[in-house]
Amino acid sequence: MKILSAEQLSEADKETIKKQNISSEELMERAATLVFNEINNRLRGAPIPIKIFCGIGNNGGDGLVVARHLIQHGYNVTVYVVNYSDKRSEDFLANYEKLKEITNNWPQVIKKEDDFPEINIGDFVIDAIFGIGLNRPIEGWVAKLVEEINHSKAFTLAVDMPSGLFADKASEKNSAIIEANYTLSFQSPKLVFFLPETMDYVGDLQVLDIGLDREFIGRIKSKTFLIGKQQALSLYLPRKKNSHKGDYGSVLIAGGSYGKIGSVLLTATAALRSGTGLCSLYIPKCGYNIIQTGLPEAMVVTDPDHEILTTYPKDFKADVVCFGMGAGTSFNTVKALKELLELMDKPVVIDADGLNILSENNDLLKLLPENSVLTPHPGELKRLVGAWKDDFHKLDLVKEFSSKYKVIVVIKGAHSLTIDRDNVYVNNTGNPGMATAGSGDVLSGVITSLIGQGYEPVNATVLGIYLHGLSGDISAEELGYEGVLAGDIAKNIGKALSKIFEKDATESDIN
Ligand SMILES: NC(=O)C1=CN([C@@H]2O[C@H](COP(=O)(O)OP(=O)(O)OC[C@H]3O[C@@H](n4cnc5c(N)ncnc54)[C@H](O)[C@@H]3O)[C@@H](O)[C@H]2O)[C@H](O)CC1
Ligand SMILES: [K+]
């Protein structure tokens, strides 16, 4: 699914009005009625106090439409107009009149702090103050109102976006932003919903298809995508009935050191569980018995050294090599990575200490074969691309790095991002249970495996992250967040793959 910018959404809005020959007020009615339906389905007539805070633009207009439908269905509603300016939009005004026609309980206008109502923890707050039209941080008494809503701890549902967030740029530090429990967003999720600094404001997310023109949206050149089940399915390369292990890639996983052999064991397990035909490990001698006992399906080649990698086996033929987990950054291990990079003309996967070595030895970066995949966690990323001011600056730095070295970079996080030059793929699977030792080693194994099976490196990365997250979700369902081990994520990759073929009637449109 494309993630559209505020500008693209406004264009799609205008184009839809033209093509479907409807008024903008009709489009607002359609969008906001969907919001009402969702609320009505959940509240089912419950008499809880609903407080709707409406701005004076079209987000506020949506709020007024929702209010009208709720009142007509007998809900206990109070509407507040957050009068931050006198420039009320036409559709706001039209719906203001419509609301006054159906109730004697007219909206209360808030113009200053003294006008704030009491907001109780048991209220149901609807935030329709600002949407994608926000063009500067919220200030003054409106900022105070936002804080008041947040402090109340009342359940808060944001219409289109939590007020105070920009759709596609960073917020200033300490800005007033609604902390929503639930966000019902129109047509396309917004990029900020998935970035670490802003995702917590969104709560649970649901995207409503408000019927903006499909053909126009299809033509929009977006470089930012949310990866859901449909996209994962479209990337999958089916297996031929008439095939053998030689068809599914020979991978080599190079890494480990004394005390850190578990890391490569996890990576290799994940590679095999992801469908690799032949899996070999290149490890220091100390890991030989561990791997041969722990993973009899794998083959082992050992370094001359007992404790660390010191060289690279030049004659070893593999379709793809993964380097770095548990390897350490000793002088001779740097040499081993250099030998690998000098030899390889096919994409490699570099993780963990492989990345630390790259950031300390910048001259190695230009040896990376085109379309190699780097999978840093935030600390490793910072060492590679430098410090960033905010999430959007980080994206710019990584895009620049990806273009400069012609590599694919994963920004790991709650929503891991795959950056391939200017393209951004946002992952939407996974859970906090995956924040556990070895989870990254498993991810590298999945990506390496898929590259070995013939997936384009960017597709292997996007699908690999999706499957890794889904496997984490399956594991958390079985074991609870705290109970998940990286080994469980590796073990359940096959189940995750099967799951993308399941039809799910209740599936939300973003999963
Ligand atoms: N695009 C769609 O698919 C549809 C969107 N709808 C809803 O419309 C809003 C966007 O409405 P818009 O009037 O453009 O903007 P806002 O309501 O978010 O803001 C109003 C107005 O406020 C001014 N402003 C911006 N920042 C500030 C500030 N910090 N302080 C004071 N004033 C500010 C600025 O002039 C804005 O224009 C979208 O989110 C949807 O909810 C349609 O209803 C359906 C189709
Ligand atoms: K809002």
TrEMBL record:
Binds 1 potassium ion per subunit. InterPro entries: Carbohydrate_kinase_pred_CS, CARKD, Nnr, Ribokinase-like, YjeF_N_dom, YjeF_N_dom_sf. GO terms for molecular function: ADP-dependent NAD(P)H-hydrate dehydratase activity; ATP binding; kinase activity; metal ion binding; NAD(P)HX epimerase activity. Residues 228-500 form the YjeF C-terminal domain. Its cofactor is K(+); Mg(2+). Gene3D superfamilies: 3.40.1190.20, YjeF N-terminal domain. (6S)-NADPHX binds at residues 58-62, 131-137, 160, 326, 377, 441. The keyword Transferase applies. SUPFAM superfamilies: Ribokinase-like, YjeF N-terminal domain-like. K(+) binds at N59, D127, S163. Its EC number is 4.2.1.136, 5.1.99.6. PROSITE patterns: YJEF_C_2 (PS01050), YJEF_C_3 (PS51383), YJEF_N (PS51385). Residues 9-218 form the YjeF N-terminal domain. AMP binds at K412, G413, A414, H415, S416, G440. It catalyses: (6R)-NADPHX = (6S)-NADPHX; (6R)-NADHX = (6S)-NADHX; (6S)-NADPHX + ADP = AMP + phosphate + NADPH + H(+); (6S)-NADHX + ADP = AMP + phosphate + NADH + H(+). Keywords: ATP-binding, Isomerase, Kinase, Lyase, Metal-binding, Multifunctional enzyme, NAD, NADP, Nucleotide-binding, Potassium, Transferase. The keyword Isomerase applies. GO terms for biological process: metabolite repair; nicotinamide nucleotide metabolic process. Catalyzes the epimerization of the S- and R-forms of NAD(P)HX, a damaged form of NAD(P)H that is a result of enzymatic or heat-dependent hydration. This is a prerequisite for the S-specific NAD(P)H-hydrate dehydratase to allow the repair of both epimers of NAD(P)HX. Catalyzes the dehydration of the S-form of NAD(P)HX at the expense of ADP, which is converted to AMP. Together with NAD(P)HX epimerase, which catalyzes the epimerization of the S- and R-forms, the enzyme allows the repair of both epimers of NAD(P)HX, a damaged form of NAD(P)H that is a result of enzymatic or heat-dependent hydration. Belongs to the NnrD/CARKD family. In the C-terminal section; belongs to the NnrD/CARKD family. Homotetramer. This is Bifunctional NAD(P)H-hydrate repair enzyme. It comes from Christiangramia forsetii (strain DSM 17595 / CGMCC 1.15422 / KT0803) (Gramella forsetii).
